[in-house]
Specification:
This is HEAT repeat domain-containing protein. By secondary structure, the protein is mainly alpha-helical. It has 16 helices and no strands. It has three domains: 114 residues, no CATH class; 63 residues, no CATH class; 79 residues, no CATH class.
C-alpha cells in the first residue's frame, strides 16, 4: 500500500495560497479559515492519485485502514485527519486493540480512536498498571471510569494488592451500583489521607453516598487543614446535600494569600445583576 502525505500536500497548497495572498487574512482569521480549508481539501481530487483524500480512504477495507495507520506511524508519514475520520466512521475498535500493545505512537493513536469503549476495558486496565506514561494512564482511567461498575472487582483486587491505588480509587468512586466494600474503602482512604486529602474528598463526592457527610464535616473542622483542602471538603459536603457556613481564617495560608492577591476569592459575578 502506498502511503500519501495528504497533510504535506495541504500545507504546500496553503503555503502557495499565502504567498499569492499575503494580506488575505489576519493571524486570528487564519485560525478559523484553515480548518475549513483543510476540510475542503479532503474533497478535492488529487491529480496524481485520481481521487480525493476522503475517497481514497473510503474505498479501503477496515483492515486496510488499520494497516495503513500502522504503516504511517512506522514510516514516519504524517497521519491525516482524513485517515483518522475514516477509521472512526467504521467503528472498528476491535481491529485497533493490537495497537494498544504497540509503540508509544500506536498507543496514542489507538487511545484517541477507540475512546471510551467497553471492548477495550481489559487493555485499558492493563495499561493502567503497565504503562510508564502518565498521560497514557490518565487517559485510560478517564475512559475506564465510564464503565466503573464493569471493572469494579478488578479495581478492588488491584487496590488490595497496592497496584496503582490512586487510579483504582478514582475508578471505584464512579461506581453507580452501591457496594459496602467500595464505600468502606473510600472512607478509609479519606480518613487516612494526608497529602491526598482533597482528592479523597472528591472521590466521596463523586461516589455520592450521603453517609460520608459526618466524616467530611468532622474533617473540615480541623484547624490545621489547608485552604485548598478546605475548599474541596466544602465542595464535597455541598455535593452530598450538606452545608458548611462557618467563617474560617486562612490568612496565614500561602495558597489563600496567592489567590487573594489575584482577586479570586469571594468574587460574585452576579452581584450587580438586577
Amino acid at each position: 500500500m502506498k502511503l500519501y502525505d495528504f497533510d504535506g500536500m495541504f500545507e504546500q497548497k496553503l503555503s502557495e495560497y499565502i504567498k499569492r495572498n499575503p494580506r488575505g487574512y489576519t493571524e486570528k482569521q487564519w485560525e478559523d479559515v484553515i480548518p475549513s480549508m483543510y476540510a475542503k481539501f479532503g474533497d478535492t481530487v488529487i491529480k496524481s492519485i485520481g481521487k480525493t483524500p476522503n475517497q481514497y480512504y473510503a474505498e479501503q477495507s477496515d483492515e486496510e485502514l488499520v494497516s495503513g495507520l500502522r504503516a504511517h506511524i512506522k514510516n514516519g508519514v504524517p497521519v491525516s485527519e482524513y485517515l483518522c475520520n475514516a477509521i472512526e466512521s467504521r467503528h472498528i475498535e476491535e481491529l485497533l486493540l493490537p495497537l494498544l500493545s504497540g509503540s508509544e505512537d500506536e498507543i496514542s493513536y489507538a487511545l484517541n480512536l477507540i475512546g471510551s469503549c467497553k471492548v477495550a476495558l481489559p487493555e485499558y486496565m492493563r495499561l493502567l498498571t503497565a504503562s510508564d506514561s502518565e498521560d497514557v494512564r490518565n487517559t485510560c482511567v478517564d475512559y475506564v471510569k465510564d464503565f466503573a461498575d464493569e471493572v469494579k472487582e478488578h479495581a478492588l483486587e488491584n487496590y488490595k494488592k497496592g497496584v496503582q491505588p490512586e487510579y483504582m480509587l478514582e475508578i471505584l468512586s464512579r461506581c453507580t451500583v452501591r457496594d459496602e466494600r467500595v464505600f468502606d474503602l473510600l472512607i478509609k482512604a479519606f480518613r487516612t489521607a494526608d497529602e491526598n486529602l482533597a482528592m479523597c474528598a472528591s472521590y466521596l463526592a463523586a461516589y455520592g453516598d450521603e453517609r460520608a457527610l459526618p466524616y467530611l464535616m468532622e474533617k473540615i473542622e480541623d484547624e490545621d487543614i489547608s485552604y485548598a483542602d478546605f475548599q474541596e471538603l466544602k465542595f464535597a459536603i455541598e455535593a452530598l446535600g450538606g452545608t458548611y457556613d462557618k467563617e474560617r481564617d486562612f490568612s496565614s495560608d500561602p495558597y489563600y494569600e496567592l489567590i487573594k492577591s489575584h482577586g479570586v476569592i469571594d468574587i460574585d459575578i452576579f452581584k450587580d445583576i438586577k
